[in-house]
Amino acid sequence: TCWDCCEFSDIVSPGDVAIYGGLCALATFNRSELHYFVIINTNFREILEDEPPIREAILNFYQSRFPACKQLLDRMRGRLLLDIYLAPHVSTLYAKIRSRGLVQYCIPYVSVDIRRMAQTFDRTVPAIEEELVRLILDGQIEALIDSVNKVLYAKKKDPKKTALAKGLAVGKEHLRSAQMLVLRVAMLKSGIEVQSPVEQIEDMQVEK
User: Fold this and answer.
1) Largest CB tally within 10 Å, which of 5, 13, 108, 192?
2) Residues 121 and 181 placed together within one structural domain of the fold
3) Following DSSP, what letter does each residue of 92-132 receive, concatenated?
């Protein structure tokens, strides 16, 4: 087949992996995920060495230096649009990265000046306000907008509601564990042997 006559490196280079992975990480990871899966991940850090611009963009984003990150991504945009696989997704990825940036920008503050935010992200005030509304409706930002004074106010979290939500999550996990235990006991009583995935693999290797 055509796959037999070419190496994987002929299809995608380490630089491609750095760009594709880096952009997707910026578009989807929160700050802690970006730190764990990208910045301190030795394997991915080595891949990023092949593409210094995306590496620097990630570091700037993580350190909340959004103008510097945007500048690097803007410089890369023309080149990315020449990639036949990536080109159709560039605008969507950049929009998601900006949204992630807005979410991260808001986290430390009780109130945020929307006009200053618009300057930081090089957008008009109406465009930023519209995007903030969408993020609030999507549940990505818990805040209220004062459209007259152009200020975003973070919602005060109700400690009781937070504790209740955590309690419900723990309760669901315990219920699931109990149900799995009951099912396992019932299967054992019925004479059905239950193997872990590791045991199944070992059995398959023995059969070979």
Assistant:
1) 13
2) no
3) HHHHHHHHHHHHHHHTT-SEEEHHHHHHHTT--HHHHHHHH
Long-range contacts of the stretch 75-84 (C-beta < 8 A, 24+) = 76/19, 80/19, 83/16
Residue 30 and residue 93 share a domain: yes
Domain holding 168, by residue range, is: 160-207
* Cα dist from 144 to 15, 71, 130, 135, 169, whole Å: 41, 29, 13, 11, 27
- Cβ atoms of 60 and 27 within 8 Å: the answer is no
How many domains does the structure of the chain reveal?
Answer: 3
Looking at the structure, tell me whether residues 174 and 146 fall in a common domain.
no
Length in residues, the chain: 208
Confidence of residue 12 (pLDDT cuts 50, 70, 90): confident
- Give the Cβ contact number of residue 125 at 10 Å: 14
Distance between CA atoms of 64 and 72, rounded to whole angstroms?
Answer: 14
Q: Model's pTM, two decimal places?
A: 0.70
